[in-house]
Amino acid sequence: MSQNRGSFGSKIGVVLAAAGSAVGLGNVWRFPTEVGNNGGAAFILIYLAAVLFIGIPVMVSEFVIGRSTHANTITAFRKLAPGTWWRIGGIEGVFVAFIIFCYYIVVSGWTLHYAVSSFLNRLSGDQDYKEYFTSFVGSPWEPVLYAVVFMLMVHLVVVRGVESGIEKSAKLMMPLLLLIIGVLVVCSFSMSGFTEGVSFLLQPDFSKVTPTVVLSAVGQAFYSLSLAMGCLCTYASYFGPNTNLMKTAMSVSVIDTSVAVLCGFIIFPAVFSVSGVEPGEGPGLVFITLPHVFNIAFHNVPIIGYLFSALFYVLLMLSALTSAISLHESVTAYVHEEWHLTRKKAASLVTVGCILLGIACSLSMGVWNEYKVCGLCLFDLFDFVSAKIILPLGGIIICLFVGWRLPRKLVYDEVSNKGTLRVRLFGVYLFLVRWVAPLTIAIIFIRELFYT
Ligand code: PHE
After folding, report:
1. Mapping DSSP to helix (H, G, I), strand (E, B) and coil, where does residue 376 land?
2. Would you say the CB of residue 224 lies under 6 angstroms from ligand 1?
3. pLDDT per residue over 4-20, tens digit each?
4. Which residues are within 8 A (CB) of 193 and not within 5 positions of it... i.e. 6 or more apart?
5. Is there an atom of ligand 1 within 6 Å of 24 CB?
6. Closest to 5 (Cα-Cα) out of 232, 239, 326, 324
7. Which of ligand 1's atoms lies nearest the C-alpha of 256?
8. Is 287 exposed, middle or buried (0-12, 13-18, 19+ CB in 10 A)?
9. Residues near 274 by Cβ (< 8 Å), separated by ≥ 6?
10. Distance from Cα 128 to the centre of ligand 1, integer Å
11. H or E stretch including 59?
12. Burial degree of 37 (CB within 10 A; 0-12, 13-18, 19+)
């Protein structure tokens, strides 16, 4: 099967597709919110350490599992440890990708709606943006419609396969996304709150650093790098024999982190240009605070304001799209290979399943809000179960599997491309994967579950 399952055609395609998975709503929306809530630059420094010591080693481990087996995540675990409980690691990856996907497309649908609205100039003027957002999200059909349209865009890419679908779209969308970020950063130089915004980002306030802040930084790194969801493992199964796993993991992390920090450079100068707005505004930041902030910040230059807002929401939507593609692929690869369906049929099945659950998630924030499980609506329940419970467990399994269960020689052969690359840091990598990463994730898991 491995011959006809497709592969990435170029090194740059590999990096852009993996970076596309990593760069998502987590960078544009969640990272600035976390920075705002947790002491600005101090949080960024801790985040960088989390990426370096936990994120990159876990990512390399996922690459090892994927490329050594050339199979979807469930089959990959089974091939490497046949007949053992380790297969749970693979099942977890595909399952959590599916669950996250169902609510990720709901929020992605919102980004599409905001991109369209800002193009139609509906996000301008002095209006109540909170009301605008809540009435949109609470409407029974509008968010559903946008989620479905978004889903169809993802479907069209995944159906075309690895090289002409995923790789081609990443090569198109990622440069566009980086270009938009560049334009927006340059625009934000002209804002009155630029100095204040940038100094908030660059001057660390260590008094705000508590154990919880450290834990949020690690959690954010995990989410932002798309770890433990089978996505990178699946992508790695399409890597060629010459792909340098460590280098790829580093490039992806550098792109992902730079995008997150640059989004801070776009958002904070705008936020500080308007008095009375606090940097840590919670999840409403991009959908409620920012439209309001863009309006006030650019009220003298409406054309620039229009462009800024339209480009920002296109950026948000593109970032969601490239990530959603990887979530879809994680599940589709499994259905395609294990259920012996054609790629087209497998992708269609995943699309329909996700649309149905996605609709339920979307309605759970509006008309179905009274139906709750453990006090949470379906959307929040999916978020809680996946992000707080399954993901950390998956992360631990990946570390233990690669660090302790796989033969050291197999891991070394993968990381060094059968000895053709010199990997000076192999010992350090193995130490991080065996001890530092699983223990840190375990601490976070226990704390998140029992103390929050
Ligand atoms: N990394 C993505 C983000 O930053 C989220 C994501 C997770 C996407 C897992 C795909 C898979 O938004």
Report:
1. strand
2. yes
3. 789 999 999 999 999 99
4. 268, 269, 270, 271, 272, 273, 274, 297
5. yes
6. 239
7. 4
8. buried
9. 193, 292, 293, 296, 297
10. 30
11. helix 56-69
12. middle
Of all protein residues, the one whose alpha carbon is nearest to atom 11 of ligand 1 is 226
* Rounded Cα distance, 207 and 101, in Å: 37
Q: pLDDT of 316-337, one tens digit each?
A: 999 999 999 999 999 999 999 9
According to the model, what pLDDT value does residue 428 have? 97
Phi and psi based region of residue 37 (left: phi greater than 0; alpha: psi -120 to 50; beta: remaining) = alpha
257 CB within 6 A, ligand 1: no
Q: Which residues of the chain have pLDDT under 50?
A: 1-3
pLDDT for the residue numbered 447 = 81
Q: At 282, which amino acid appears?
A: G
Kindly state if the Cβ of 326 falls inside 6 Å of ligand 1: yes
Output the six-digit token pair for 222. Answer: 């995990």
Hey, whose CA ends up nearest to atom 10 of ligand 1? 323
**Cα→Cα distances 180→1, 52, 114, 312, 374, Å:** 40, 27, 16, 8, 41
Token code pair at residue 116: 């369209």
What is the per-residue pLDDT across 21-32, written as a single tens digit (0 to 9) for each? 999 999 988 898
Question: 59 CB under 6 A from ligand 1?
Answer: no
Q: Is the pTM of this model over 0.90?
A: yes
Nearest ligand 1 atom, CA 330: 11
